Amino acid sequence: MVDYRRLRLSNLTSPEFNHLLPALYWPVHGILFAAVEQLRPLAACHPVWCPLDNLIPFNEWFLIPYLLWFFYIPGMLIYLALYDTAAFRRFMYFIIATYGVTLLVYLIYPTCQYLRPTVFPRDNFLTRLTIAFYEFDTNTNVCPSLHCIGSFAVAFAAWDTPRFRSLFWKLSFFAMSALISVSTVFVKQHSVVDVFWALVVCAAGYALVYGRKKPAAQPV
Q1: Is the peptide bond between 51 and the residue preceding it cis, with omega within 30 degrees of 0?
Q2: Please, are residues 124 and 64 in contact by the beta-carbon 8 Å criterion?
Q3: Which of 137, 157, 138, 139 is nearest to 95 (CA)?
Q4: How confident is the model at residue 186 (pLDDT cuts 50, 70, 90)?
């Protein structure tokens, strides 16, 4: 286990802590994503839709796994940073590669969706929370889905570290990542098309980062 009590800005590049350097991508991604969001108005974005979207009803209960995504990724980052620095690096390399490609797609081919309901079938806490979340999260730059990519990034990282290599944990992380991905279409944040292309990006990222992986070092 890494002792972060000794971490200082001056020793960030030392062998003990330089595994954290790829994590500097997170603020860079946030800045670039915000810039891309502001680059083009909604009218300039290409709507994403497929017939299957119309067959999927809005269901506010899927907001729960959808919001779990905001804890799912940080939770895995913290675990790997503490217990498996080699897997932490690979996790971040996957994020950098897949999120970077996705931002490039958003820049070249900006997308949007018009799937959000204007009238909700029920009035309860979750539907009101969904309305509030719609105001926070725009309906632009949706394809591929970063929500889906980030979810499977966690599953791949779990499979990569010895603690979670049992069949039980592999299936559990896969199921959670799949549930979070499915939740995006039930809360009408994404089209099925967005999820499909996210899985394509995930497959390419997995082959690039984990397909050529050398034997894993012992976790720290």
Answers
A1: no
A2: no
A3: 157
A4: very high
Who's near 129: CB < 8 A, 6+ residues apart? 60, 63
- CB contact set of 16 (below 8 Å; sequence gap of 6+): 2, 6
> Two tokens at 14?
């030392």
> If DSSP codes are grouped into helix, strand and coil, which group holds residue 112?
strand
The pLDDT tens digits of the residues spanning 81-94 come to: 999 999 999 999 99
Helices (H), 116-191: 125-136, 146-160, 167-186
Residue 85 to residue 88: CA distance in whole angstroms: 5
Residue type, 38: Q
pLDDT of residue 42: 87
Residue 54 three-state SS: helix
Pair 117, 187: CB distance under 8 Å: no
Asked if residue 21 lies in contact with residue 12, where contact means CB atoms within 8 angstroms, the answer is yes
Distance CA 30, CA 11 (A): 25
Distance CA 171, CA 66 (A): 19
Query: Which pLDDT tens digit goes with each residue over 37-61?
Result: 988 888 899 999 999 999 999 999 9
* Distance (Å) of CA 61 to CA 118, 124, 132, 183: 18, 11, 15, 9
E strand residue ranges, 16-78: 46-47
H or E segment at 6? none
Tokens of 184: 């995006």
- pTM for the complete prediction? 0.93
